[in-house]
Amino acid sequence: MNRVLSRLGMGVWLLGVWLLLWGRVDALTVLGGLVAVAVAYAVSRLPAVPMVTRVRPLRLAEAALEFAWDLAVSSVVIGWHALRAPGRVRGAIVEVGAQSRSELVLLALTTSISLRPGTLLVDIDWERSRLRIHGMPVRDAAEADSTRDGVLHTERRLMQALVTPDDTRRTEDLS
Predict the structure, then answer these.
(1) Cys-Cys link to 132, which of 9, 23, 122, 162 (CB 3.0-4.6 A)?
(2) Where in the cell is it found (predicted)?
């Protein structure tokens, strides 16, 4: 039943986006939106709306502050390398094994990664929760480990802030 409600929630969201794009609400636009949502579900694997059982506001604020700090620091680091030695900045693809199985947490994590200067999500394996990230600057194994540790730290913060059934079940299975 939760899956049906979750999919219905995603359908309502898509219909809302459709109506915003058209800029008006009338019978024909709503009908067209319903058809578009039905076709989208029929031809693709659209995700269900991820469920959150609990949001911890203090932890969410900590995660937001951490993101802002990381954004500022990475901007300075990338700017410094771009000005100092623009042709010699090296990057690497770093694989990170995410702990979360929640699509919501992984979505927040991948968004965070892609918005930071110097990191970019290259690939994600949803089934195994594996992320491949291009990190910059990465000159050696220690810097690759540092990039990986930063991603895992952000993921832990997000898991503490957004409690989801997927991660709750996983935590219970591990105990």
Answers:
(1) 122
(2) Cell membrane
Tens digit of pLDDT for each residue in 9-53? 778 888 988 998 898 899 999 999 999 999 988 887 666 656 677
| Structural domain of 12 | 2-43
CA-to-CA separations, 26 to 14, 17, 31, 99, in angstroms, rounded: 16, 14, 9, 45
Q: If you average pLDDT over residues 110-116, what whole number do you get?
A: 86
- Residue 40 phi/psi, 5° resolution? -60, -40
Distance (Å, whole) CA 122 – CA 129: 14
Mean pLDDT of 140-168: 87
Scan for tokens 């991603």, then name that residue.
151
**Are residue 33 and residue 103 in the same domain, yes or no?**
no
Note the pLDDT of residue 87: 77
| Cβ 167 vs Cβ 175: under 8 Å | no
Q: Which two tokens stand for residue 83?
A: 């000005």
Q: DSSP H helical segments within 44-116, as ranges?
A: 57-84, 103-115
Counting the structural domains of the chain, the total is: 2
pTM of the shown model: 0.66
- Tokens 């915003």 correspond to what residue? 20
